[in-house]
Design goal:
10 helices; alpha/beta; globular; homodimer; 6-stranded parallel beta sheet; 18 strands
């Protein structure tokens, strides 16, 4: 089958064997995939991953012990867990000590004709969530996760730093809760989407940080973004770190101590909540689609996803 | 009067005027002071402070509107606040927007014959807390602060990274609550104090980090310490940042996101609780005294405080 593989270099191969299906897992025929910043980081060496890339997808179940799932249109949680380590037993299976992660840790991803995932990881999609929306379930779940970790209400002042793919999803989720939220970004075209959603936005150049925000959510994945976030959050406020990155220079972390900031790392989130938000039309994801590629154009697609002004890039086989 | 001043260089001066006493403040005749890592950082340029150094002291009230305080032996909280900004009104006066901080921010410190502080900042000492113990009230309060910010009980596994002045105080405070705690340090002589207090300790060389600690408290003030702390704390665990520092190299903060770690910055703490712990003999502070200097030997004292194996250095006029 066709697959987009990374092994210190990016290749599109056509002779990748269709993956074996371990007990308890399902073979998925991939319908469409999305390019995430993590994919881009991986092509720069992050996580030391090698194998088939990709973790945002919508697929049809091709083979599965559970007959009820056969032929269903599904999305899938990306953490594949052991169910027996201290984290799994303690209810934190997303942090399973022995986990593999689709296209990120020791498991081939979804940038291919087929991939496999445990049947327990799959969520059947309602008809209201079409294939374009479905590839956003994984990142939208990650955005929802912030609201599961941090209490926010109509009196909580929230700033999202970063007007990219993830920042715009996070801002919508927070806004949907009736929480006053503002997005700070660098790209006017991306920020213009906020206006459509009646979310306030500001260009980073127009910001005078005053350490007055209750909650700041850093979705930039950059040293500059994190430094700005530390200048925006109020003393004893909460700073959510939403994106992994490898800083290229030393960061002064003293504000965390001096202002007694609570920094909360945030990763994957609840798929069911994300699917429901989409089915309810509460979140606009399709406006984030910038361009579509064929799977065999993956190198160009990943390149395109890094260009200024570009939000979500999709691929199909 | 004599004073230890920093102004891009360290000087001992003898002609410093005795400070004026603003309304609501008290003139304090300094009895003894302690050298803190923050003083050392300031002599390296941290905070851009210039003026009289020092914030750990015990003194006698020499002049004060409140006659009940006259002649009393006191310690003093170091944050001098406006009582009217949003932080003060909101009950977070330690984070006052307009604060001065004794010997750290826009206020001459206590490495002098006299200093001034608002009368409201003063705590009269009981007889059980002698002058040697009293200089530890400020750092012990900072140690107590950790236990006010993070819930810990007999089932919480806690590691203190850093076997220095602050780490050994934090470890004792946590241990005193019946919480299982372990100290990781670099200096066998310092760690040997833990044995006396029946606190487990390990040399950093003997550690295999396994991401299994519920709470890790970083008291090292170093990039190495913070990196180790991130490898010790379990997913969804808590990492307390207790000391400010300026990293000299880029730090990989991805574990905070991937393991969804909760990082809590922690600064000054409750003086009354610290005084009570000392009066109850619950915490051994005097074993931390490494050496005594005269105030006019301040440069040598600050130099000595940076040597391996040295814990608390005290000075008297």
């Amino acid at each position: 089958m066709q697959a987009v593989r990374f092994d210190s270099q990016l290749h599109v191969v056509t002779n990748q064997p269709v993956p074996m299906v371990p007990k308890g897992e399902a073979l998925l025929r991939v319908r469409q995939v999305g390019v995430c910043s993590t994919d881009i980081e991986i092509t720069r060496g992050y996580m030391g991953f090698s194998g088939t890339l990709g973790h945002e997808f919508v697929a049809t179940v091709e083979q599965c012990e559970d007959r009820a799932l056969m032929g269903k249109r599904v999305v899938g949680e990306i953490n594949c867990v052991c169910t027996s380590c201290d984290m799994c037993v303690g209810g934190l299976s997303n942090h399973c000590r022995n986990r593999t992660v689709l296209g990120i840790v020791n498991r081939d991803g979804c940038f291919a004709e087929f991939c496999v995932l445990p049947a327990n990881n799959l969520h059947v999609l309602p008809d209201q969530v079409d294939d374009d929306m479905a590839v956003f379930v994984e990142p939208l779940a990650a955005a929802v996760q912030v609201t599961k970790q941090v209490r926010m209400d109509s009196k909580t002042f929230v700033t999202v730093v970063g007007g990219g793919r993830l920042g715009l999803l996070v801002a919508q989720v927070v806004n949907n809760l009736g929480v006053p939220v503002r997005v700070i970004g660098r790209d006017a075209a991306k920020l213009s989407l906020c206006e459509r959603w009646q979310i306030r936005s500001r260009h980073v150049k127009d910001i005078q940080p005053r350490k007055d925000q209750d909650v700041v959510i850093d979705c930039t994945g950059s040293s500059d973004g994190l430094e700005l976030a530390m200048q925006l959050v109020r003393p004893r406020g909460t700073l959510v770190l939403k994106s992994t990155f490898v800083p290229t220079r030393p960061l002064n972390l003293a504000p965390i101590v001096v202002d007694e900031i609570n920094v909360i790392g945030s990763r994957c989130g609840p798929f069911a909540a994300a699917i429901q938000l989409m089915a309810d039309r509460a979140i606009d994801v399709t406006s984030l689609i910038s361009r579509r590629f064929k799977l065999d154009q993956a190198p160009a697609a990943i390149e395109h996803a890094q260009k200024p002004g570009v939000l979500k890039v999709l691929m199909r086989g």
